[in-house]
Amino acid sequence: MPALDGIRILDMTQYEAGTSCTQALAWLGADVVKIEAPKTGDPGRGLHMGLWEDSEYFINWNSNKRSVAIDLRQQEGRDLLMKMVPHYDIFIENYGPGVIEKLNIGYDVMKEIHPGIIYGRLKGYGTSGPYSKYKSFDTVAQAAAGAMSITGDEDGPPMRIGLTIGDSGAGMQMATAILAAYIQKQRTGIGQEIEISMQEALTYYMRTSIALGSKWGEQPAPRRGNGSSPIINLFPCKPFGQNDYVYIMSVAPRMWTDTCKAIGRPELEMDPRFAEHTARVENKDELIEIISEWTREHTKHEAMKILAEGGVPAAATLDTKDLFSDPHLIERGFIQKVTHEEAGEIPLLGWPPRMSETSVEMEPAPLLGRSTVEVLKADLGLDDDAVQALLDSDVIEDGRKPIESN
Questions:
Q1: Is 2 part of a structural domain of the chain?
Q2: Which entry of 11, 42, 138, 167 is annotated as an active-site residue?
Q3: pLDDT at 265 > cutoff 70
């Protein structure tokens, strides 16, 4: 049985911050109905390379959802949405500042017709404070949360993190809060509003860097590049392509011993130049070159295997192509194959939590409006004539699929 079987979510999210949240809940078994604008849908659908109508970006963040296309700018479309609200446990949105207020579908409005609704709002800077009307995206949040200031080389400029953690990191926090609110509702019967600021959410992942250099906020924490010592660093491997490196993280004395043995240089352990941490830092360049001489004789996969089997925390720097052919991820069934209506069979990365008593099969992201008719008939009891009238007035879109009779 899926863990969230029976929980229904109205999803008014776009791009990634909100969609990552609702996808996680869908992968746990919730019925997620994504409300999109007819013709255009979630703007993330358009972030593509021209291969098919929906982008790879959209497909990666919207599996296991149903799409309902309603024009909320029309009063009739807004009325449809409000009639749907009582059929759902949770509503989530991450639109820009003022959009929800302009549509008049805020928490106070929804609470009047569904007192138990859990209403999630994910904003760049929240709904209060001097920045609340500012727009934000992932890298904007990274800058505002301090993440760029600790990323990059020590003597270089701030740098964005490659991961879109400003978006998806905030989304995962929203998912956690929603589940907590749902559990609380089971005890009290009371719904609630949840607000998450992307700026504040991203600072959660800053705590270690803050603790290792800011002196309780008195000074900026330093940038450390790829490593803070010669044995916590990145090393080149053959055939010396852009991503042909192995990362070594020998953080304990025993790991330094294991590193020396793994690279075939046990004598380095007691070498006065490298025997102690301070000595290794003082002779950093020399030690990095010695280790690099060894790593250059191996591919990143060979180096990882030798080091890791020798007790050294180390990993090949897998790129996005390597991930889909990684034997470990394949053997664990993490690479999922799904059949998308336009893209055909495609591989997607799976859902990390593995739960012994729940299982949800991964489904492809929906085409725009794919479930409009299905959902409106089931939720509101509309017949074919009523649906056709809404289609004729462009209030809804059915994903170019024929209307199915009851």
A1: no
A2: 167
A3: yes
